[in-house]
Specification:
alpha/beta; 10 helices; disordered N terminus; TIM Barrel; eight-stranded parallel β-sheet; 16% strand
């Protein structure tokens, strides 16, 4: 008798993701953004076997994030890992059931979750620890890093993956400074099994820079989702990460 297939955990699925799509929603453009994310996700699932999509909304109520998560779950291809930016509670329905596979918390968002009285230098780590306790062990917790020291800290606090950057100019964060690719290489060398996603201004034309530092993953927003043909851009990004370009 053949043993039943084992269902991969969220962490195992994330470890197989080469391209983490960051879908930014601004104004009444949800139809177009979701359509582009669906087209790119279908390509990445077919050609790489895994994809993650982060829904990025700023200055909205929890209910708006939850509603978009519900819609994205219906419209993105089955098998897509779905994460939400900024807000821990948006991951969950009012009943407590998970709407998303996880959350990405930037430094300030994580620090806001820290208990009162925590020293300012430790607030981000304390907030990530609180988020991990709320999420449990199965849901994904990502955050932002720029140095090996930061990466060590956030992993110890409970993050299971991280964005690294910004590598280049970002369409959504215009005040960022370029991160050090040598530092990226150090992070990848010390933590080869941690999903690290270089991010910020990346697309088919410059992914060779992070590939040269040893990265085989990347988080990409406008480089795919603002392209004339998101599916073709997703294929080009895969080729660049794999060293074919």
């Amino acid at each position: 008798m053949t043993a039943p297939a084992t269902v991969a955990s969220r962490r195992e699925r994330l470890a197989a993701v080469p391209i983490y799509l960051v879908a930014s929603f601004q104004g009444p453009d949800a139809d177009e953004v979701l359509g582009r994310a669906a087209a790119a996700s279908a390509v990445l699932l077919a050609e790489a076997g895994a994809v993650a999509v982060q829904l990025r909304l700023k200055d909205v109520f929890t209910s708006a994030r939850r509603a978009l998560l519900e819609r994205a779950r219906r419209e993105l291809p089955a098998g897509t890992l779905l994460l939400v930016n900024d807000e821990l509670e948006a991951v969950f329905e009012r009943t407590g059931e998970a709407l998303a596979d996880g959350v990405h918390l930037g430094r300030e968002d994580a620090a806001a979750l820290s208990p009162r009285g925590v020293d300012a230098t430790a607030r981000t780590a304390a907030g990530l620890s609180a988020a991990r306790a709320r999420l449990g062990r199965e849901l994904l917790l990502g955050t932002s890093t720029r140095t090996l020291a930061e990466l060590r800290t956030v992993l110890a606090a409970g993050a299971d993956h991280a964005g690294f950057g910004a590598i280049g100019a970002s369409a959504t964060k215009r005040d960022t400074k370029p991160a050090d690719l040598v530092e990226l290489a150090r992070c990848l060398a010390e933590f080869p099994d941690v999903p690290m996603f270089p991010l910020g201004g990346l697309g088919p034309e410059n992914l060779h820079r992070v590939a040269a530092a040893g990265a085989r993953r990347a988080a990409i927003g406008a480089g795919i989702l603002a392209a004339r043909d998101p599916a073709a851009a997703a294929r080009a990004c895969l080729r660049a990460l794999r060293g074919a370009d």
